[in-house]
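ok so i was messing around last nite and threw this chain in just to see what happens. nothing serious, just curious
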Amino acid sequence: MEILQQINNLLHDFVGGPVLIIAILSTGFYLTWRSNFLQIRRFPLVLQETIFSILRSNTGAKGEISPFQALTTALAATIGTGNIAGVATAITLGGPGAVFWMWFSAFFGMMTKYAEVVLAVHFRQTRQDGSVVGGPMYFLEHGLNQKFLAVLFAIFGSLAAFGIGNMVQANSVADAVRQAFNIPPLLTGLVLAVATGVVILGGIRRVAAITAKLVPLMAGFYMVGALIIILTSLNQVPAAFATIIGNAFTGRAAIGGFAGAGVLQAVRFGVARGIFTNEAGLGSASIAHAAARTDHPARQGLWGIFEVFFDTHVVCTLTALAIMVTGVWTEGLEGAALTTAAFNVGLPGPGGYIVAIGLVFFSFSTLVAWSFYGEKCFEYLAGTRSALLYRLVWIPLIPIGAVGGLRTVWALADTLNGLMAIPNLIGLWGLSGIIIKLTREFFKKR
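result:
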């Protein structure tokens, strides 16, 4: 066991280190350059084809769920504890300038996510029962002709989900509920397990139906709280932006130079948090987008651009500004505790409850969405009949995670989550020509 932990520590250092971060960021830069900065040039069209077209009918297109349901399923996985705790941790360790580098990484991440979605839809497969499946497993096998890389991604994805998408989320919810309402973690875990089971046992259609209602509700609830705090301290907002942008290049630390001193720290923690908050480069969200009813891969790809924009440039920014305008970022707190402190200062009384309830919603939605990701990866390896087995294993691990059990598994799964990026990025580089071809084909008609 000790040898396994040492190997995992080495791999984890690589996953969280500069090499993989640079690889993900450079992929986004390359795709941005090859597409002639599509996310800027066509951003009005992105909005037109996404949030302004929610009611548009797609009954004639192939797929199982609507494009909006595909987006909310993907957002259910990406909008999570990272938007509450991850932003706060980036500020604590990298200083306010880390927020700028989160924006920076998300700018290029929009094209990375776009490319993942385009390939997932283009190479998706329709089974005999009419169900549609796709994701990195399928574009690596059928597009790049690399079955080994496809299997590797599926192994990483099916196992990583148990940590980052299951036990870690359950523990975050249980801890938040215990602190806010003094409810025992085991009870929280059992309730979560039952609620998750009711959703995921119904398959992708039920998952999509739930997330289509839950994601707008949970995001709206949290965002309203953050907006109230920001609007009541509106005179502090220009200074907050100035501090964020200025510190991105001067590296002033949040805690007297302790952990976040230097520009490199701001870049490191900002880029890392940005990447792993919106999951651009990991390939996971494309599994949900592949099931969308759409008439062209690039059209669904625009939802990928919006996904990263909303997750990082909107939700994470609101969290960061709430922390900055209330002044709590200098108090030495970290993670959810820092965000809670900001909400308690900005909204005395209900503030802490908003964060706690937000964590419950965010983590529950992540539990549901990541169960689908992990299941589809496992199905790729073991066949469609394995889906029920995966769900039955998934559900009892929730209360185990809620009470803090199997932390060694958490650490391993966290490493595997980062390793998912390697085969996915190889696929994006190798199939970049197809991505650009499909993009040009779509925009010729616009």
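not much to say yet. Residues 2-443 form a domain with the Amino acid/polyamine transporter I fold (CATH 1.20.1740).
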